[in-house]
Amino acid sequence: MAKIDSLCVYCGSSTGNSDVYRDAAARLGLILAEAGVRLVYGGGRIGLMGVLADAVVAGGGRVTGVIPEHLQAQEVGHSGITELLVVGGMHERKQLMFELADGFAVLPGGLGTLDETFEMVTWAQLGLHDKPIVLVDQGGYWAPLLALLDAVVGAGFARPENAAILEVVGDVDEVLGALAAAPAPRIAAREERF
Ligand code: AMP
Predict the structure, then answer these.
(1) Ligand 1 mean position to 168 CA, how many Å?
(2) 166-169 β-sheet, strand order
């Protein structure tokens, strides 16, 4: 059983065009606050990222944002969170978010969310870490991605067990349960591997 004290959430810097996504981000924020799980995220106050962080703060929870200097103006770094760590660049941001987290959840998002998610999946595929990664297929948003993953496996370009590194749930209510049920990580992250 994995113990999740800090959860890194990847999600859109936009809100998308359905309230389903915004509502889900707000609900996950409250769930984390109530469970006493610290949110680790990209530090912005816009899009689903901002909705999520605001909800954790409103629920009395802890939030650590990690934002690169060059994005701080663009994404409007969130000033109301527990701590905002400003780093030199994107690689440093993703590395620090990885190190601070006991597991990962992915909400609907765009290209940046895809990049961040697949970086964690491919690091796990290479045996660099085994922290749990839960994809929240809220409102069926990720269905085309899941179909693509099936096609990639079907065509022989990924092993089924590597595609299965992404554990899929249908709703934010299932995130903490899925993370807790995942095996406890056994790989000690060693910086030189990255
Ligand atoms: P998006 O899903 O594109 O709205 O972006 C969500 C988060 O991913 C934001 O914090 C972005 O800063 C970050 N992001 C955007 N583009 C990239 C990229 N090329 N590589 C890594 N992260 C990115």
Answers:
(1) 21
(2) 83-87, 63-68, 38-41, 6-10, 103-106, 133-136, 166-169
Q: Which atom of ligand 1 is nearest to the CA of 42?
A: 10
Q: Are strands 38-41 and 6-10 parallel, antiparallel or unpaired?
A: parallel
pTM above 0.85, yes or no: yes
CA 56 centroid distance within chain? 15
What SS3 state is found at 134? Answer: strand
Q: Which residues contact 133 (CB under 8 A, 6 or more apart)?
A: 103, 104, 105, 106, 117, 120, 121, 124, 165, 166, 167
Low-confidence winner among 105-114, 136-145, 178-187 (lowest mean pLDDT): 178-187
C-beta separation of 40 from 7 below 8 A: yes
The CA radius of gyration of the chain, in Å to the nearest whole number, is: 16
Q: DSSP assignment, residue 167?
A: E
Cα(11) to centroid(ligand 1), Å: 9
pLDDT tens column, 27-65: 999 999 999 999 999 999 999 999 999 999 999 999 999
Contact indicator for 46, 74 with CB cutoff of 8 Å: no
Q: In this structure, are residues 194 and 13 in contact, taking their beta carbons and an 8 Å threshold?
A: no
Q: Which 3 state secondary structure label does DSSP give 50?
A: helix
Residue 44 is given by DSSP the state B
